[in-house]
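In this supplementary section we document a worked example of the pipeline. Step one takes a protein sequence of length 503 as its only input; no multiple sequence alignment statistics are reported here. Step two produces a three-dimensional model, which step three serialises into structure tokens for compact storage. The input and output of this example are shown verbatim.
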Amino acid sequence: MNKLLEMRNITKWYGDHLANDRVDFDLAAGEVHALVGENGAGKTTLMKILYGMERATSGEIAIRGEVVRIHSPADAIRHGIGMVHQHFMLFPPFTVAENVVAGREPSRQGWFDRRRAEADVRDLCRRYRLELDPRRRVADCPVGIRQRVEIAKVLYRGADIIVLDEPTAVLTPLEVRDLLATVRHLAEQGKGIVIITHKLHEVMEVADRVTAMRQGRVTGRLLARDTNVEELSRLMVGRELASVVRPPARPGPVVLAADSLFLLGEGGKPKLNHVSLAVHRGEIVGIAGVSGNGQSELLRALTGDLPVDGGRISLLGRDITHLSVRERRLAGMAYIPEDRQHTGSAGVESVRDNAILGHHRRPEFQRCGWLRGRRIDREVESWVRRFGVRTPSLQAPAHSLSGGNLQKLVFARELAAGAPLLIAAEPTRGVDVGAMEFIHSELVKYRNEGGAVLLVSSDLNEVLALSDRILVMYDGAFTGELSPEEADEERVSLLMVGGVRSG
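The serialised model returned by step three reads:
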């Protein structure tokens, strides 16, 4: 095996917290090596050490058999290592070509040579089968295209070792297929690819080898052809996973109603085109759709972040169309936003403070305008234990949590509100299979106890597994409503791209 990379006996301490415990990891040229594990298992920490964003407490790294010291991303890039982060690092106002060459811009007589940059990016994309328009502005690109731009960036810098951190977390099923094909092609070109992911079916489809981690340690090293999803799940979470039991719904009165919501976009084209829906007590209503077809605008309109140009929204029979975000929350709306980093949390603030955002005015948490610290600590500690949020302490900044643990914290906060309505957007994005099982069971439990859930997810399997009714959105309008009995992946996928329901 032609080893590009060897990480030997890597250990990483954060104070009293052991993130990596004597981890060995290697990568060969021309292979895809999946790194899987629970949130907080140490996967991303290990790869950040490789990329120079963190320093190991002990251990060594060898590139092509030679021990190297990597103290910064610049060192990593010099050694042919590139990393595509879960949250993209692009300049939206710039073109694709400008983003790809940023920091290594071709010049002519001291000036940026735009024509050469575009030609270089075009040649790069042709070589690696990346369909990109060098002149297109990144701000106008969908998520899947932006990810290709990130991959082109690391290839432009000469990376032979490419780390993809949760690469499919925000992609549609079609974009996932395109990405996996790109990954296989890169491996065929001799690149070594590391994929950090929780999506085990994708692991089985694209990976050659798999390393599983739990609580900072390696629990298994396997050839993908010799394992299966069930075994990988056990290695990740240390137990068998149970299927979520969802008894038949018993819908009660309407909790949320939207009547003919209309929102005009740029150029006079509607973003929401007379959208109507109703969510009852004791049911989960799922919305399926390809990203960019109005789901985000609908969520923002329902939660008060975006005023509509027409229509009416009511909660428990009360007109809330013109209420603020805070007033809607006080009226009985809980919301798990699709962007946990920018909308769902304040990264520089503590885990504790993030856990009580929106709850801090509750009588049990404050007295005469002063927060009751001990009472808050006890409550938040119980949420952290119940939802398995792995954090060094309640005082740690929220941005220090892994993406999956931050998602669990936001989910815990919103569920603890006890609101009659929960709007859940991408509730399991970036979480491991064990956490996904728990979140799904909690959503069903909430629904069984009379809560109303509006679920919006780009994971079609999640929508199919949890929903009592499915609404399919395309081009700012609903193209169909399906019951669980008539919904299947093929039928929903057809409606998602504007097809006509048959039968």
